[in-house]
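USER:
I would value a second opinion on how I read folds in token form. Give me a protein, with the fold worked out from its sequence. Write it directly below this note and I will take it from there.

ASSISTANT:
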Amino acid sequence: MTGHTITSFEGCAKTLRQSELRQSLYDAASLMMERCLVNLHGAEHRARRNVEATVFRKNVFVDYEKNIMPQTLAETLDPFLVAGRGDLVDIGYRVMMNLTVDFTGIDRTERSSEETAELLRLLKEFSLAPALGQSRPEDVPEKRVRIERAMEQFRDRFLNPSLKRRRALKAACNSGKIAADALPRDVLMALVMDEDKLGMTEQEFLQEGIFFTMAGAHTTIHSLTHAIHEILEWISAHPEDIARIASDPFFIQHCVFESLRLHPSSPVAKRRALCPVTLGDGTSANEGDTVVIDLRQANREEAVFGSDPDHFDPHRAVAGHAFAHGISMGLGAHACLGRNLAIGVEPRGDTEPAAHQFGTVPLIVKALLEAGIHADPDDKATLDQGITRISWARYPVRFDKERALL
């Protein structure tokens, strides 16, 4: 077997769309992710994705942004705003955890700080799984035990009660006691409604619940922290754009796109060839070969993203049909199903702000800027030295309404 690495933007974009290549980024995490959406392929993947896609629609997203998200965001941020300080990484995890489980369909019956803390603890245990392949061999058995224990705890405390309630709602709907439009609009409810057709096992429900909880929280907190950092740094160097933050309703979203281009939550995608195939950059791969798609490098190609592509510039013009955020959200069958939920839709010249879908990350950034977020001058942020990608381990911040940019 041979390894291939693709770095050109066009080559990466084409390769991500090739059906002859199967997802392999999470092979080491099979105990937790073997049968979740991101690892399915072909007909199985299409069937489950089509069911889940019924939740990932604009009308559902808009309703979520306007009617559900504000309450969850406010109750999560309030303790930090009262204290006037916090760690942006911790704040982000708490916000994104609560928003993600709401949309996934994991019931938070207590809606308490303790309940959120327990979900965060489980999330950190789950995060060990994707990194098992990079762990020291002697550490793997102990980590597997921790992961399996966390999966059992998540199943018993959170998933099973949520499934039980939705199956009861499904029965009530089928008997005509409640209308279909009264059912929760979340991923778990959609899967329960079609579970006979999908043939999902209880283990698959567990893996899917964990996957959406982990993917939504981990990827978006990465994007949120980087976006706040880049905006604060940009404004410090370009104070003339302070007015634009307040006057241009789409400016914050453009900042999030540009930050995401520079800092994809996963710097690479990884595939395995199912048969001999010509890859997107013209090279040939044999059955069983691994293919690394370098998203970070592709997102910095001058021909697509202009001069100085290694630096943050919210005014950047993008060539052709490329997204402003590059290919950070993937393309093809495994493109991020929650892309529009997380970062919204790219505005056009005739877009009306009142009807626009901004996405959860831009809206959280806006709320934090309205609260006067700024880096703590007495406690410097630090990068996570335990992983190869650029990610923040701690980002102490303070809140002061008098310093609000909005």
User: Anything to note?
Assistant: The first strand starts at residue 3 and ends at 6. Residues 29-216+378-403 form a domain with the Cytochrome p450 fold (CATH 1.10.630.10). The chain has a mean pLDDT of 92. DSSP finds 16 helices and eleven strands in the chain.
